[in-house]
């Protein structure tokens, strides 16, 4: 969820749309995936876009790799294991690498950041991993960018990597960055199709350029599917205060405010604070959309999984796994510059079957993005 750079793309309007009308009251009935509404329910929907003939995505088949000599250090962002989101996605990728590449348990070390800690603490954490011979050392989150700028040059033979950021002037730091806005667009479409009130909500953890990418894609997707939809938006903390990623109560309060305003589908990009968003959705008879991992599958969210209709998938697990494999094979330069829809590194989940009825619509929009018929902006509109 967290990165500082992104490719600024220009939002485009869908062509060939029917004349669109305003939001309708919730009077029952179901929506037609081909456009429009039934019995006046929800929003007036745009026609489903065409699927371009050249919309295939690429994928790679893992080859047998011997990683038994590797020592991997993973420096978590705040929350660590068990956040049911960003960090757990990184864990999944590392656990898969351990299993497939034969990495010994004693050759893996995980360390976790504290909320609003100073740069010295981050530097000490990374420096200790490198001094202990861990290679690669992976910083999970953009908060490690400044620390890596200081530490990486001290260990030129260690391969560092960072999720969601780049470190200029440090050739031994590999950026693992994502097109979060693309997958957020798809769940924005899902929100528009599933809303009965034609009003949805976005809850961001910390107001940074990275989290604004989630907002930008979500809003663009919702409006592409339903141009008259209303969108509530709330950030839990401002840039610099990272507690917004670890405050479920604050997430709950923000979500309840949006539900009170009429939103009935809520999307969060708020890390562990998202647990509060889910709780508010359940108690407020609303639906919710998860982030980063398939949150309907997370054990510590079992009590709210019934309200999670889908999750925006940011495959940090894929990036971590691919990075470890590339280091083992000495092929780091072959990694994607951006992990996007074209390489299936972002997407949406289907656990629970709650978006099965609109999967053809979501995949049609996905194909439009992959072929650049639709360009998704990574910055919120004014």
TrEMBL record:
Biased composition (Gly residues): 28-39
Keywords, sorted A to Z: Cell membrane, Lipoprotein, Membrane, Signal
Pfam families named among the record's database cross-references: Bmp (PF02608)
Localisation: Cell membrane
Domain ABC transporter substrate-binding protein PnrA-like: 75-376
Residues annotated as signal peptide: 1-24
Domain of life: Bacteria
Coiled-coil regions listed: none
Its membrane topology: Lipid-anchor
Recorded GO CC terms: plasma membrane
Region of interest called Disordered, as start-end residue ranges on this chain: 28-64
Family indicated by similarity: Belongs to the BMP lipoprotein family.
Protein name per UniProt: Nucleoside-binding protein
